[in-house]
Hints:
2 copies of one chain form a homodimer. Chain A has about 550 residues and is α/β, with parallel strands linked by helices.
Amino acid sequence: MLGQMQDWPLTVDKILDHAKEWHGGREVVSRSVEGPIVRTTYGEIHERAKRLSNALKGLGVQKGDRVATLAWNTGRHIEAWYGIMGIGAVCHTLNPRLFADQLCYIVNHAEDKVLFTDLTFVPILKQHREKLPSVKHWVIMTDREGMKGVDFEGALCFEDLVEQNSADVTWGGFDEQTPSGLCYTSGTTGNPKGVLYTHRSNFLHTLVTLGSDVMGLSARDVVLPVVPMFHANAWGIAFSAPAVGSKLVMPGAKLDGASIHELLESEGVTFSAAVPTVWQMLLAHLRETNGKLTTLKRVVIGGSAVPEAIVRGFRDEFGVDVTHAWGMTEMSPLGTLSNPNAAIAALSDEEQLKFKLKQGRAPVGVEMKLVNDAGERLPHDGTTFGRLLVKGPFIVGKYFKGDGGEILDEEGFFDTGDVATIDQHGYMQITDRAKDVIKSGGEWISTIEIENLAVGHEKAALCAVIGAAHPKWDERPVLLVKLKEGVEATKEEFLNFLEGKIAKWWTPDDVVFVDDIPLGATGKIDKKLIRDRMKDYVLPTAKEKVSA
Amino acid sequence: MLGQMQDWPLTVDKILDHAKEWHGGREVVSRSVEGPIVRTTYGEIHERAKRLSNALKGLGVQKGDRVATLAWNTGRHIEAWYGIMGIGAVCHTLNPRLFADQLCYIVNHAEDKVLFTDLTFVPILKQHREKLPSVKHWVIMTDREGMKGVDFEGALCFEDLVEQNSADVTWGGFDEQTPSGLCYTSGTTGNPKGVLYTHRSNFLHTLVTLGSDVMGLSARDVVLPVVPMFHANAWGIAFSAPAVGSKLVMPGAKLDGASIHELLESEGVTFSAAVPTVWQMLLAHLRETNGKLTTLKRVVIGGSAVPEAIVRGFRDEFGVDVTHAWGMTEMSPLGTLSNPNAAIAALSDEEQLKFKLKQGRAPVGVEMKLVNDAGERLPHDGTTFGRLLVKGPFIVGKYFKGDGGEILDEEGFFDTGDVATIDQHGYMQITDRAKDVIKSGGEWISTIEIENLAVGHEKAALCAVIGAAHPKWDERPVLLVKLKEGVEATKEEFLNFLEGKIAKWWTPDDVVFVDDIPLGATGKIDKKLIRDRMKDYVLPTAKEKVSA
Lengths: 548, 548
């Protein structure tokens, strides 16, 4: 016996329908790629997205076809999204920060038929178009005036498509398991792999993130998503803002402190989301210019661990509350947020800080477990750390085209590749990447924890910890230190500095001073490259052992 | 092509699993039916609900079987809910306020196999048990001490079932369209009809109501649902509170002002939900005793229209924000809430009041339309009123066993039976019941609007408006007035009082003074009975017409 509540498939076109019907006059403001501020509304975006749907159908796009976007956060990008998804095609967001050959691999792997691009990326696409045979049509996201400077054979003008097509098209009406979006992981090992979102997964992610204890957007919010639509779905804001009628402020291509500050103030932004570097730039700009934040109330920070100084800066200098968030492309992307539970909320601001720096709590719809190498569950005591696995209706089940094979454990959990602790309040904290963690005598040592402590030494500019082979313990930690300019130090100074701050057996077996600690494309320490550079290194403790 | 995000059916057992895992120590406090305050936690409730599942299996309950509860809001009632739903059986909530023969009809129609009851209802069940042949087992929701006073052959003791069974049982694992709950409408015409909720509809209702612009519960909230689990699912709070880890305070059988006030203060309640009469009793109690509300921040009021005096009382005397809500059994039950959008929030408190008294805005997942008798859509201008129809994933598609036949229009909308306006901000306001609205010359007249104005006359105790047959206009309004004790008045006094307040053609054709205006079981004016009593009444204007 099945129930007989209404059959109402969870398809994302209904989100923009809702915005048009109930928040049709609510503004969407963009800093256009061409320069000027452009103002539109959910009502107009709905109309224009429908026209784009007809344009795509005219270009031969069918249900299931992939249509790529290589674009900044703007109103036009939202129109493209809903125009694509509404007719059951798949919106494949491309990350312009990837290397050109990675981009080409991804477009070819996805077999994208149409590619929407901002003016910014026309030159690079022109250079590589011959390597992208699946793309039949190129749409430049500009108007006829903007097209004048475009030197790209056969390119279509976005505004022409909008103008020349009718809005008379039916959206939705298909299974909620129909794919809606495609995003490739950055792929630090091997080729990038695609996560194929569904209408259902996007819709459920939207509902969950609207919860008071998650992102909690409301019709009264003015939301500026700095976090890009091209990576991790702008943390779902392109869905959640129209779902409640928040005003949207889209920053386009300018993410520097001054540009963001200008939009925050001129548009009355109450809520924003970005990675730590963006907030660091903003804070620096505000301090330099003696700037104020007169309307901003909440910022969500994710993408990498939040430095304490950012939380304090926002709180103490600007009265803005910081919520730490964690997620990944494979999770649509949100997994946890550090919104306080009742016990934490009862603490002083200073005591709460420790929890604000953790990655946070999981909402209903995100299951988490910590396991050891044998797959056994570990306790939630805030100190035991293990691999972090996740399960839920907006978490990847298989990668696109089956890449990587079976990726779930026998309980249906996906391995995040992170190593974490979970405390008694349910706050998760990432302690390391699984591939970086040091396994010493069967126990695990967090490289990140030692790095974060060591970099607090006044002479350190940057620190990294890696594991080095040891005949007895398998691996032992080595601390690499890049000193501040013109400074000298001894190994003992650093080892003494760490003493008492970490367990004795976590103490690095060696300290190596280096001229350079390499950073990857996202600003994180590139451990893979460091390990390559150190491949001939032998621990002094290993040598002693051998010579003993 | 379907996507490959994880297969994670939306079944409500996952909500209590989540509460146990991440909010296991959070309290659920009940005023027990036996008297004392009983404290438990989500962790304990999870364990005990699982034991009940095994007890039910032992009693022969299988997937799809209906298990009834006739019970107040308590922790035990929650245990019964999840114990029943977790194994795919259907929790059929019975409303003790129904007449005995309605209750018997419902139990027989549902073919309930097991019936859980509070001590309160044992006498009435004993009287009627012979008429309920489908019920094989009767479970009294008490402990062995409480059973001593129970004179009911073969009755099982709730605490015995918990004690004697193991918690080792698998929950869920079935299709999310599996029925989870059953609730009958009050059935003002014909027999009550059953709404068969599904795991999916309950889960989606939970996610939607957790949104900041809907109920917006958080882990920091302490929630007292006065609104009963036995009717309209306690507005979903038995799902939404555990879904976020709100502390739950369950009022049991005592809903008077003093008892509610005591719980609000002793347990630090921040959020509560009830019908207007409960709040009226609370306000009266607070004024009498000079009581304070030191922790309560928000109350949601629904079930019938909220009098302005309640909103003002809470706001001005106690600093508590009132949110008006509207819904119905067929909607799981929430449809709209009067949380402000940006434009309304920018108004003064006094200007906002007008919108607070409307039934409110629809969240994503609730579609609404206003139509005329021909089914054509009407404008959202705040004055045009029409039949209110709704559509969404937690709205009824068919009644249980197909009662009432096809109930959706060709666009898939369900007719609420209400007549309403929707303004430019999307605020819906109920103006009448469709069966009460007066159709005069093809236009509609709201009886409720005239009643609300007329009752403002200083001599009126109660007013009702009904339509009376008219040879030219089909129907014309008649105002019935019950005067305050010892007062006299003329028809003209009332007609003059209304002049200028309503359109001229809405002016009643007659005023009839009556000794009694009958109220139904829920405190609303019983128009059906009034129309019966007035069936021989002839309008003076109709007579004139005839004699002319």
